[in-house]
Amino acid sequence: MTCPNPSSATQPGTGATPVAIADGVHWIGALDPMLRRFDLILRTANGTTYNAYAVRGSSGVAVVDTVKAEFADTFFARLEQVARYEEIRVIVLNHLEPDHSGALPELMRRAPQAKLVISTRAPAMLKALLKADGQEIRYETVDTGDEIDLGDRRLRFLHTPYLHWPDTQCTYLLEQQVLFSGDVFGCHHCDPRLFNDRVGDFRFAFEYYYAHIMRPFKTHVREALALIEPLPLAVIAPTHGPILRERPRRYVARYRALSGADASLEPVPADAEPLRTLLVFYLSAYGSTARMAEAIAAGAEAVPGIRVSLYDLEGGETGPFVDLIEAADAIALGSPTINGDAVKPLWDLLSSLTVVSLRGKVGAAFGSYGWSGEAVGMIEDRLRGLKLRVPVAGLRLKLIPTDGELDDCRDFGRALAQAVTGAGAAGSEAGDTAAKPVIDFADLA
Ligand code: FEO
After folding, report:
1. Model-level pTM?
2. How far is the CA of 41 from the centre of ligand 1 (A)?
3. Where are the transmembrane segments (predicted)?
4. How many C-beta atoms surround the C-beta of residue 186 within 10 A?
């Protein structure tokens, strides 16, 4: 059962009642069942939840995260059922994005004695987020291993930056073995039954969330897992979606699998020299850009140490191409210029690449054109915007390639491959735009 309108008081997450998730620990978050798009880019077929928690110790209460501002009333209604404001000693924000910090200013007005605890990367963001509120915010920063003592309970902090903002951290309740994980292990899936062993199948939401939120930060995911995996885990309490109390380690293991550095399926002999990989993608209206692509691939393949793959973008799905690009060392993108632009499937591919890390990869652009030929330069600009290196100047030619121009394409492929393998001078960034002249017959007229 999903949660189009959680009106039943028989469900644990409805009726503004707090929900116990461990001894002395309550969920005090909010349900947002009707949300259909999060942060403009994520589709949320089942809405989402903004999970916040209260931890009661013998010497005071800690609140871990808050909720989106529009849901503050529900949050405070739940909080007031498990603690008085004067009992709150600590407010922990694992992540400052407004869906978790929205109720913070009002919480600090109601519990002015409470100490705000954030990660070492968070202060600048905190000030930027709350400057319009005008409230003076006092805070303390914590790093991995720092602890806060609540008497018979202790909160220990794990510095886990870039999951998915620079400020993010996790908080571990030692005595109950509860990991308050922030967005890590979360998903946009609203179900008032709250717990992973009670809600419906949310695998799609979990995988979708990882793919769009965590995947670009795989290196940081692996660093965070190195801190999380040694912990005894009874419950993982993320800021979105189901609370993971049944076999929580399965979700940790899934993150480990998804964040693997190499998704290649091909068996590689143990004694084989590692190959660098170049993917050549193209779209072609009359076959000219396709012939350029083939010649570029042939030229690149002549360079030792590189494996070249060639794909017609028109015939493929974007998702698998994104997977390939994530694992590749270099991409070359070919498009004709139509109405002063590269063609839409190429832009669709480029816009899909925001979910993977491209920093340090090599990019290049090429294409045939009939009149003005802007596409190549526009693709190069976009590649640089995505943090790829563009060490070989783009190659464009007018209409149908001659044999001599196809030789130029092979030279272009060779220079590109050398830039990837480090075998030639073209690997220098200094060659960004000036390594090779544009071939334009119109200039010769
Ligand atoms: Fe759920 Fe990154 O905020």
Report:
1. 0.80
2. 13
3. none
4. 27
